[in-house]
What does this fold into?
Amino acid sequence: MKIKALLALFLCSLIGFSQSVNDYKAVIIPLKYDFLKTENQYRLATLTKSNLLKAGFQAFYTNEQIPAGFDRCELLYIDVKKDNAFLVTKLFIEFKDCYGKVIYTSETGKSREKEYEVAYKESLENAFTSVIGLHYQYSGKSVSSSNAVQVQPAAAAVTVAANTPVEEKPAVNVNLSDPNLLYAQPTENGFQLIDKTPKVVMKLLKTSRADSFIAIKDGIQGSLNAKDNQWYFEYYQNDKLVSEKISVKF
It folds into this structure.
């Protein structure tokens, strides 16, 4: 009974703290989606931006300079996902916050066109119908990185009671005033680290250890390891091991 009561309390708290797309100032668009081979293939990034503008959002590509006055957690991060289907192209849209939490998922757009460019364009346009139907209007109640909602102790108690595995992060010092601080956003296989721009600086792939990741930065593959209460990007250059300290907030 106690577990049920705690779970009910947790669900109520989630409802109270739920966010909508109206709580965010703008949307960040990646140049490449996972199901594509090259940046802006079939002009899907361009199509995404034009539809976001049509829906009333401010929108920026990941390689654009974001105007001053934007906190990274006042931004939404859009992704387009592909559903595998026979003879039908299916795409849907996800909006995530700065911590990788899904804020909104669109209806699935479909196309039976055989040519990829035509099918992807039609599917994405159809998926955006539900986004445009949200009638987005910025509410002025955005969530900044300084006041983002944290999991409450009651939620932690439910997790432990339900015996849900919890991935423990190593103890690492984080200096929030560091101008080079990177923020971790969850991906399917690990994390991507973004700066305050926001721009993706490094991609991390999970390993069997919580204190070590396969890391890729500027085309260089190495590893990100926690040691001495710090994170270090380690790789070989001219047959010599290079160890570069990285400031990360998970």
In short: Residues 116-132 form the longest helix (17 residues).
